[in-house]
Amino acid sequence: MNAMETRLIDVDLGGRVLPLYVAADLEALFDDPGDPDQVPCWAEPWPAARGLAAHFLQGPAIEGKKVLELGAGVGLPGIACGLRGAEVIFSDFQGLALDLCAANARLHRLPRYRLLQADWRDFTWEERFDLVLASDIAYEPRLLPHLKRVLLSVSRLGGSIYFSHPRRPVTLSFIEELLEGVLFTGERFTRAVTVPDDRVRTSYEILIHRLRRTGG
Would you say the pTM of this structure is higher than 0.90? Predict the structure, then answer.
């Protein structure tokens, strides 16, 4: 993996602006574009991450809660939870992503955070969490059986899993599969997200799903 340079950006979360370290040059991080594990999708905040972060900055009280962010990337939703007083574990497959999470946690002076480098295909972490954050990570069909196993292993009874995504059909199907059993009840919200410097589009409607663990 190439060395990574960073730059500081401002992320507008509907009235509150958070500075955030991201990768300075995405193209420099492509070691093998043919290997999906090496595509640097972790190197900048996606619209769904912005939507979920805004939800927690303006949403329910989570002070003292234990939070796990899966596929954390630059860690924006986890940072938002940490700013609201939660204890956060940032987890990602890529070590450079965790370097960004750590830099952003230090930037915002989070008092309680940890880093976990882990692959869903070989995930053995036994701790359970009040909140599990899954920001636009349920889109690769080959990984969804592994993600399901991870989610069932880390969400505690009475806790919640939060998904956010820009209306991806595969993500909606995955959430429906989780809700088909007796382990979760669900609700969902929508949040408009603006990304002024997005190269594809600047406005997104992000779906946020809260799955509360009621069994298992």
Answer: yes
What is the DSSP pairing of strand 17-23 with strand 66-69? unpaired
Helical H runs in the chain? 47-58, 76-83, 95-107, 144-154, 169-180
- According to DSSP, the residues that pair with 155 across neighbouring strands are 129
Q: Where are the domains of the chain?
A: 6-213
Taking only the tens place, the pLDDT of each residue in 101-130 is: 999 999 999 999 999 999 999 998 889 999
CA angle 77, 59, 70 (to 5 degrees): 25
Express each pLDDT in 11-49 by its tens digit. Answer: 999 889 999 999 987 666 666 666 666 666 777 999 999
Give the other-Cβ count within 10 Å of 194's Cβ. 13
> Of 200, 203, 198, 204, which Cα lies nearest the Cα of 9?
198
Q: In whole angstroms, what is the distance from residue 94 CA to residue 152 CA? A: 22
Q: Which of 195, 189, 201 is nearest to 164 (CA)?
A: 189
6-213 is a CATH 3.40.50.150 domain:
yes
The upper half-sphere exposure of residue 84, i.e. CA atoms within 13 Å in the direction of its Cβ, equals 20
